[in-house]
Design a protein that fits this description.
Radius of gyration: 27 Å
Structural class: alpha+beta
Oligomer: single chain
Shape: elongated
Strand order of the largest sheet: 1-5-6-11-10-9-7-8
Largest sheet: 8 strands, mixed
C-alpha cells in the first residue's frame, strides 16, 4: 500500500500545543470581556444555503465562498463570516430572543482568499453584536468593548479608528456618485495601501467619476486622522447633506461617549479613509491597529448594519458589533514577542522518582489538583535528567521531587524552574503546605 504524504491544504493549518495554548487563552479573554457586558453565546451551522450567504458581503466575498452541491443536491456554502448567519439566526428566532439581543459567537469561518501574514482560508472570528437597537449607546458600547478587550489581552498602545458610512454615503450623494458607491468605497478602503494616486487610478478605471469628483472625495478621505479638528472639517465639507451630517453627529457622539465612560481619549481617532470592505455596513465602523505593529492591519473590526436582516424578514432588526481577528492578533503577538512559550496547561509536574511509590505520587497529585492547581504526574520512572528535560520543554513552573527517603521523612522538594532554586516542605498535613507554597511563591491559581 502506498503511503500518503501527510500535509495540509494551502491556507489551512494544524495547531500544536504551543500554538493552541495562547489561542485558548485569547478566546477565554474575549469570552470574559464579552460576558462582562452582558453578551450571551450562540452557535450556528458551518453550512448554510448559498442564498443565505451570497450577495451579502460583495462580489469579491461571493467569489471566495467555499460553495458546492450537498448530497441532497442543494446549493450550499460554508459561512464566510459570523454576521450574515447571525442575521438569518435572529430573523428566524426573533420571537424567542427578545430585543435588544446581545450575543457573542466564537467559531471558524472560511474564505478562499490568498493566504498572507496573519490571514488564512480557515480562521476563527470572535464576534459580539447587539441586535434590535439603533441607539447611539450601542455604538458607544461597541467601541468600549473593543477598548476593554485590547487592554485585557495586554496591549496599552493601540488605536481604534472610527468612521461612519453615512458620512461617506452623504459625500457620494453630494458629488452625485451614489450609484457607484460599492466600487468607490472599496477603492477608498485601500487608501492606506495604495495611496491617493492608486485610489485615483482605481476610481478612473472602475467608475465614471470625473477629476473634480475624485478630488472632492480625496479631500475628505485623505484628511489626517484626529478628533475635533476632523469633525470640524467634516462639518464644512458635508454641510447641506442630511445623511452626511447625521454621520458626523454620530461620530461626535461616539467620541463624547467613550470619554464620558472614562476611556483614554487618545486611543480613539476618526479616520475618514476607512470604509470596510463588506457591503452591509450602514453607520459607525471600527478598525483597531496596534501602534507597535500597524503593518499587520486591523485586529478588531466591525460596524453598524441596520439593513442586513431585511433580506430575511420585514421586522426591523438593526445591529452593531465587531469581531476580534484571533489569528491576526496571535500573529502580531508572536511577532512582538508577547506569546508565552508553554506547551501545557498544568503549572506543576511531579517527578516519578520511584515506581514503587506510584500510589503516593497519585495521591499528592490529586490533592494539589483538588485545590485548583494544574499538576501532571510524569508517567514513567525514568532518569531524572529525562524528566527535567521534559519539564523544561513543556514550560512547567515548578517540579515536585520525592524519593523513598523523602517520603519516609514526610517531606518533598519543590524545584522552581525559573531560577533553579529548591524548597523542602513537610507533608505531615498532607499537601496543605505544598499547596500554600505553590500559590504564594509562583502565584499559581485555578486553571483556565
Amino acid at each position: 500500500m502506498d503511503r500518503i504524504e501527510p500535509r495540509t491544504l494551502k491556507g489551512f493549518r494544524d495547531f500544536l500545543p504551543q500554538t493552541m495554548m495562547p489561542r485558548e487563552t485569547l478566546i477565554e479573554t474575549a469570552r470574559r470581556v464579552y460576558r462582562s457586558y452582558g453578551f450571551a453565546p450562540i452557535d450556528t451551522p458551518t453550512l448554510e444555503l448559498a442564498e443565505i450567504l451570497t450577495g451579502k458581503g460583495g462580489e469579491e466575498t461571493d467569489r471566495q465562498l467555499y460553495r458546492f452541491r450537498d448530497p441532497g443536491d442543494r446549493d450550499v456554502a460554508m459561512r464566510f463570516d459570523l454576521t450574515v448567519p447571525l442575521a438569518r439566526f435572529v430573523a428566524q428566532h426573533a420571537n424567542d430572543l427578545g430585543m435588544p439581543f446581545k450575543r457573542y459567537h466564537i467559531a471558524m469561518v472560511w474564505r478562499g482568499e490568498s493566504p498572507q501574514e496573519g490571514r488564512y482560508r480557515e480562521f476563527m472570528q470572535c464576534d459580539f453584536d447587539t441586535i434590535g437597537s439603533t441607539s447611539i449607546a450601542t455604538d458607544i458600547e461597541t467601541a468600549l468593548v473593543i477598548y476593554d478587550l485590547m487592554h485585557a489581552i495586554g496591549f496599552e498602545k493601540f488605536t481604534i479608528r472610527l468612521n461612519n458610512r453615512k458620512l461617506l454615503n452623504g459625500l457620494l450623494a453630494k458629488v452625485d456618485l451614489s450609484a457607484h458607491a460599492v466600487p468607490i468605497l472599496r477603492a477608498i478602503d485601500k487608501l492606506s495601501k495604495i495611496g491617493p494616486a492608486g485610489v485615483t487610478e482605481e476610481l478612473k478605471r472602475n467608475t465614471p467619476a470625473t477629476e473634480s469628483q475624485i478630488q472632492q472625495l480625496l479631500e475628505l478621505v485623505a484628511t489626517k486622522p484626529g478628533q475635533a479638528d476632523v469633525l470640524s472639517k467634516m462639518d464644512r465639507l458635508i454641510a447641506g447633506n442630511e445623511l452626511g451630517e447625521a454621520g458626523v453627529g454620530q461620530l461626535r457622539a461616539v467620541i463624547d461617549g467613550v470619554k464620558a465612560a472614562g476611556a483614554k481619549a487618545e486611543r480613539f481617532t476618526i479616520d475618514v479613509s476607512i470604509a470596510r470592505g463588506l457591503d452591509y455596513y450602514t453607520g459607525t465602523i471600527y478598525e483597531t491597529l496596534l501602534d507597535e505593529l500597524p503593518s499587520i492591519g486591523s485586529v478588531c473590526s466591525g460596524g453598524r448594519y441596520d439593513n442586513l436582516a431585511k433580506m430575511f424578514t420585514s421586522q426591523e432588526l438593526p445591529g452593531v458589533g465587531a469581531s476580534l481577528g484571533l489569528d491576526r492578533m496571535l500573529a502580531a503577538m508572536e511577532k512582538l514577542g508577547k506569546l508565552p512559550q508553554v506547551q501545557t496547561p498544568a503549572q506543576v509536574m511531579i517527578v516519578q522518582f520511584d515506581a514503587n511509590h506510584l500510589g503516593d505520587y497519585l495521591l499528592l497529585a490529586s490533592q494539589i489538583r483538588a485545590a485548583g492547581i494544574g499538576v501532571e504526574l510524569y508517567p514513567d520512572a525514568k532518569k531524572l535528567g529525562a524528566q527535567f528535560k521534559y519539564a523544561d520543554r513543556k514550560g512547567f513552573r515548578a517540579v515536585i521531587i520525592a524519593g523513598a527517603d523523602e517520603l519516609a521523612k514526610g517531606v518533598v522538594q519543590i524545584k522552581w524552574l525559573a531560577d533553579g532554586s529548591q524548597t523542602e516542605l513537610s507533608t505531615s498535613n498532607g499537601a496543605a503546605e505544598v499547596i500554600e507554597t505553590l500559590r504564594d511563591r509562583a502565584n499559581l491559581n485555578r486553571n483556565l
